[in-house]
Here is the input.
Amino acid sequence: MEIDLEKENKEILRRYRKLLRDAKPIMQEGDPQIIKKAFYTALEAHKDMRRKSGEPYIYHPIAVAQIAVEEIGLGTTSLVSALLHDVVEDTSLELRDIKRDFGPKVAKIIDGLTKISGVFDSRSSLQAENFRKMILTLSDDVRVILIKLADRLHNMRTLDSMPRDKQLKIASETIFLYAPLAHRLGLYAIKTELEDLYLKYTNTERYSSIAQKIKQTQAARDKFIRDFIVPIHDSLTKAGLKFTIKGRPKSIFSINKKMDKQGIGFEEIYDLFAIRIILDSESDQEKSDCWKAYSIVTDFYKPSPDRLRDWISTPKANGYESLHTTVMSSSGQWVEVQIRTQRMDDIAEKGYAAHWKYKESPNNANGKVSTKVSGLEQWIQKVRDMIERNDYSALEFVADFRQNLFNEEVFAFTPKGKLVTLPNGSTALDFAFEIHTEIGVHCLGAKVNHKLVPLSHKLNNGDQVEILTSAKQKPSEDWLKFVVSSKARARIKDYLKDDRKKIAAEGKSIVERKLKQIKKDFNAESLQKMLSYFNAKNAIELYIDVAKEIVEAKDIKKAFEAPVHVSSKRITEEVIAVNPDTAIKQIQDGGGLVIGDNLKSVDYSYAKCCNPIPGDDVFGFVSVSEGVKIHRTSCPNAVELMSHYGYRVIKVRWANQTDLPFQAAIHLKGADRVGIINDVTRVISNELKVNIRSILINTNDGVFEGKITLDVQDARQFDRLCMKMKTIPDIISVSRII
Ligand code: MN
Here is the structure.
């Protein structure tokens, strides 16, 4: 294909000029020159590079800068960094060139971005370690993460040109870490788009069917909103409020989640959208204006008393401020109404950066500064505390960190009325550790609202908590089962680790004494003998077993009597360590795994967690001991597998012909009438000639629910069967069980 370079250059300049236009409001004196320099530096550096799609590479940094400015609301330093974000990584330019030409601030951001990018492609290390590196940069400059999110968003938007296995891997990382991160940073719009794109690439069919239905119902929604506004419009105006009202549909991802979770169809979701009233308020009138609007709305529509959420008096930790209520519309449908000001809406959509704008911008209208120190800053401080502990294993870190990302807060008070903020689901023990490590370590129980409760008692908003301690009390492994905050977890683990060290030291001296007694030297060779004989992973483990008398001291001499003995466990571990990589290489070199072909060299089986059948969208996962496991891309474990062990994921496709039947299971719901089971089994075995393996039926109050396991040929046959079953009178729902 011939490339029209002249046309391409024109397009590059057009995109650059649009970026400049949109950045105008944030620019200060001297900025246009720096931006221009950054653009031409990036253009020159990437000049011979193209993206997978064939487009000039420079489109990407321009797009990332555009997102940073337009969708996150970042300033010139970030814009410049976004334009240059890939040059140190991918071109001959070096960090010191950037520092010389653009100063230390930009260089530091680029350095952070370079450190955390690329590592995802590495096959050798766990993704978790890379996530950790990424989060580490949070403590330097949060802009690194924001630009990384912009980078990821653009890559997700252009995922079409990537090969299928890369798509799945990138999409999984996105849902595993980037979307929650965006959520925590309050970047609601970006989070939603990332989630929707994830669904688009992992469950394309479902995605397009929901998208289409949203479109089809648009007109009805618009009419509903028009009708809803009619009575309140005049009153809001008479009250002197300036406002706009819009209807916000739920995201495709969250609709899908709801459909899955509740096992219902699109048509059955009643809260498909919320009505949002955005007020144009003076900054000292914001709160009272919002409540004024609330009062007017509820004059006309009855609110549900337990659905009022006031995030204006107490904003969420990610900075979100809004007043939510659910009211009964005149058509008898509950509808959520969100009331907020323009400033609050900006923060809700653009998050942290918008927050900055209101807090720090020197050009802020009449120099007003929002006085609320955001919970977000407190959160970043907590993250810093967490990552500064470098003895943490990367996997533990990521697990704890993700928990923190998703958590909302619970507010509790000390007996003296001091407010303590904890992650949702926190227990009395979390509270104790939040106050002080010593109090946590010795925590015996608590009094919540003057009533005695155990350590594991979950706290509710507004609880007053008094911690009871005892000098004799100390942490145990069990405690980890019910603490939620990363602080408490970390402190308990620290304590247990120290405790293990003490126990191990005790065990070691027992071993030493025993060896002396049987006249054996204490050296590497004798240690190896004992490890093999007792099948212990390492010396510490052995010492602890001895101290706890799991291994009896008198048996130690047996280790030296036994013939040369190599534990079977050891051998398998070594084999495992070699296997996956060679297997992956063989398969990738062969262009992916084709199921059903007589590829004798590759040992594969179907994952029990999702039971794939031919025709399903699938991927292969190279397991350590059982060859390649075939999973569905919609498998509940897929995200974790792909994001943690992306390098073990291989491309898999179905051969056209398979002879063996596959097992699949159907979940059925219906009205319990005479003969219905007979109708169901007749459809299955007579009309479609499918073999039934098992049937399990429960009836309750006139409704029956059943699980039927069948032998089918492929996904197409299965879908046909489901459709046919839906036509049986009194059947309410038919779905596939994973
Ligand atoms: Mn990039």
